[in-house]
């Protein structure tokens, strides 16, 4: 541990001035950090360091890693599959962050300002719970369910279409390389909406009802109220949801794993799955570690950018329109 | 002297973290009276039944020794097998995946016990082509070198067919590729899709490989599977062209890219398709369906067929009770266990010919013995064996081929690129 860190940490202790006569207690508080520090080191720092080291080696997972410098990273930059996986990440940001946020705000507003007053809060809570159900389902179960629904021959979607005489619309949902990514995106939207709705509804509950009453008296329509009050008041929640879901979208693995395994062909491959398959199926551990490192860097950049945007944006609720 | 608390806390945290992330060594010392056996074959399979039978024989012959059997999953072993073998907590004997990318990698890394001399001194009958899957050379290439594993069973890919549908449409069992295509055409003209295929899964690559084997011989097979000389990619190109043609002729449904192997097999068993190109591991399920008569023919016109000895019993280098492990492997090779396997519909490697009691057992068992003898052809292993990760590439490209997302030439180019990239550099 370099001593520079200890110096900076020591300055922080002066914030807590010990009482006279208890100077031997100085530093005693450091032990309270221990559990968190152990967890962080064991779960984050040490594995991350190991991963960085492996990314600089050529290693099959057994035997001794051979140091090769930045060769894995050079190979990555020339690997079309790597770039394709990042292109798909953009699609999944749309499916996991942008669409669920947009739909979530709308649904939350409808539940909170329309369903709840008209039909009672029980109905609104029940609906909220049903939207949240996909979040509770284990992803493996959800994956099996959707695979069964998408099955081209006896899946419920195609069967229903055929029964309605719309057999022409029946598709090979997960088996057609042009469609598969949209089919997966659809599942992800379904998966994420519950989360956004719950956050936005709790956000709306802290909005002063007087705002809506005043707008109502001034004769503002529902859509005007939604635009000026709901969207504005929910800005901090929207920012937080966008950060968490975007990071989740960049890391997405399980839905891809259970639905398509990156297929058909490589039409739904994402960085996390690409890294996983380098680790375990092609046993190019060094290469997989390099993918994971680049992914970690990308996520950090996106998260920091969004956090900055959020802090800038949620200072005071000024109307952002020009 | 003042201790620096920050440094102390950091040191303690780091030490604890290292312990938690498993950087410390440790492990249990093996109990000499326990045999730890792992396999991943599910309880309803013929293999599992045969091995449980072997365990009961072992327990009878080793009073005082308890057998601890743990059921793993195939995925677990495929993905973390080598980590397990590298740990201090290995079983004494376990089922392991055959092939360059799996057993080959761990054999090369010195994680498996060399069984060459054990096999000789105990005079195991392992001198046949089915048992080649247990041989690995110094580069971890399968098929020659030292013996690291012993297999109990075999498998091969043929064409399962629905005899009732064949009779109904007056189709004869084809013996050449041309006759096979005629049969496919007959069914298509009658409005039936002739081939059940799950090209989102292994059946796709198996069919492509069967078509490629039509243009291959022992020499080009050795080139592909064992890197002996130049690979004949033109055979693959012809195969891909034919397969694409079959899709266009509606012998194969384009929907098959969204259909896993299990669904394809289920559809065949439900009588929806006249034919299903797949392996002997379907035998049990196909034999059990009572609604129509089934039989199997080998891929018409081919001398070589996808197939091999099965997965291996291996003894980890770090195993604690190696002698007990050898005893167990020996018991699994005995005729009584092998015949038991045949009765359950498995494909034995050391049974007495004609000993199976079920029709399916007789069919696949005796046919496998024929393939082993090499008189009517031979076993060509599987298309994904030569290099690690080829399976995913084959799957991706077969789906592209069937889905019309890539030309046959592009498909073969992609397979070749992955093959060349994965070649072991001696």
UniProtKB/TrEMBL annotation, chain A:
GO terms for cellular component: plasma membrane. It is found in: Cell membrane. The chain crosses the membrane at residues 29-50, 90-114, 126-146, 179-201, 238-258, 285-307. Its main location: membrane. Residues 86-308 form the ABC transmembrane type-1 domain. Pfam families: BPD_transp_1. InterPro entries: ABC_transporter_permease (IPR051393), MetI-like (IPR000515), MetI-like_sf (IPR035906). Keywords: Cell membrane, Membrane, Transmembrane, Transmembrane helix, Transport. Residues 1-14 have a biased composition (Polar residues). Belongs to the binding-protein-dependent transport system permease family. This is Raffinose/stachyose/melibiose transport system permease protein.
TrEMBL record, chain B:
Gene3D superfamilies: Periplasmic binding protein-like II. The keyword Signal applies. Keywords: Signal. Residues 1-26 form the signal peptide. Pfam families: SBP_bac_1. The keyword Cytoplasm does not apply. It comes from the Bacteria. This is Raffinose/stachyose/melibiose transport system substrate-binding protein. It comes from Saccharothrix ecbatanensis.
